[in-house]
């Protein structure tokens, strides 16, 4: 079976694991949030890996960097949703800090990837 380039990215693998953990986390949110916060956070966390996958199919490094940047911004969107979940007492402060740490790790790796893509497009 062929492995696509995005599947080899450590940051994509982290985003994949993070998505699963967020899906499991939101299962304990109140049912009235199904079409609100749950839907929003699932969409944003899914977009992290999706942007990396889509960007890997682009030809130029500048285009790849654009999609990596979009993955970065959706990671921050996910952070915002986690802050809302904490504010609404859907998650504890400890849970929030655990997920925030994972987000920081992902954003650091996304920044590094984006910088390498930008540098490769500007020799």
Please give a structural write-up.
The chain has 4 helices and no strands. The chain is mainly α and 123 residues long. Helix 1 packs antiparallel against helix 4 (93-121), helix 2 runs antiparallel to helix 3 and helix 3 (61-87) packs antiparallel against helix 4 (93-121). The chain is elongated. The mean pLDDT is 97. The longest helix has 29 residues, at 93-121. The protein has one domain: 23S rRNA-intervening sequence (de novo design (two linked rop proteins)), CATH 1.20.1440.60.
Summarize the structure.
The chain has 123 residues and is mainly α.
Distance between the termini: 34 Å
CATH class annotation: Mainly Alpha
Number of strands: 0
Helix content: over 70%
CATH architecture title: Up-down Bundle
General form: elongated
Largest sheet, described in full? none
Structural class: mainly alpha
The domain count comes to 1
Strand content: under 5%
Number of continuous helical runs: 4
Tell me the layout of helices and strands.
Layout lengths: L9 H17 L10 H20 L4 H27 L5 H29 L2
Helix pairs in contact: 1-2, 1-4, 2-3, 3-4
Highlighted features:
23S_rRNA_IVS_sf; Four helix bundle protein; 23S_rRNA-intervening_sequence; elongated; about 120 residues; single chain; about 0% strand
